[in-house]
Amino acid sequence: MPPSAVRWRPNKSPRYCRLVNNSPDLYAAIRPDLVALASALVERSDKLLRERGDFLPHAAVVTDDGKLTMLGAMCSTSKGFANAWHILPMLHDGLRSMANERQLRAVAIAECVEEIPGIAKTRAIKVHVEHQRVYTIAFYLPFSQDAEGQYIFENSISVQAEPEIKVWTQGF
């Protein structure tokens, strides 16, 4: 990781939470999967943000054997145009399909958002993670640009969330 890249460090436990399943033992057990997914997706998002000034949603999974795999979606034509509202449903469907084909422990999607709901109107990298042990969390890494155009990242915020991808809640 280049020295200018963001170094994301998750909190020991979620803050600003509406706790659904707040078992410290559960969080401790799944934290390595959460950190692996969030770290990989934040690193990729940071790189794309610095190169292009924005990025399309992208995803990652942790398989049952602990392997992390990054995923993306794209247009079906070389001159096609894609945006987040087009890519997100494709990623959701792709992750659900992947879960039908192999055992997954956790799935996650990173996207660039304009607001941290209920907390602040600010641009942020959002990483939404769903774990097979019925735990869903959203990590937000707020950022801004200084006068020279350099990205400045603030402290991460984690919020327990409702499932969006719904790999394990829809009977897939």
Summarize the structure.
By secondary structure, this protein is of the alpha+beta class. It has two helices and seven strands; from the N terminus they run H-E-E-H-E-E-E-E-E.
Q: Can you characterise this structure?
A:
By secondary structure, the chain is an alpha+beta fold. The chain has one domain (24-160). It contains two helices and seven strands; from the N terminus they run αββαβββββ.
Shape: globular
Write down the Rg: 16 Å
Nearest-integer average pLDDT: 84
Q: Structural class, from helix and strand content?
A: alpha+beta
Oligomerization? single chain
In total, how many beta strands?
Answer: 7
| Count of domains | 1
- The count of helical stretches stands at 2
The helix/strand order is HEEHEEEEE
Sheet-strand content, in percent, reads: 25-35%
State the distance separating the first and last CA atoms: 36 Å
In helices, the fraction of residues equals: 25-40%
Keywords:
172 residues, alpha+beta, seven-stranded antiparallel sheet
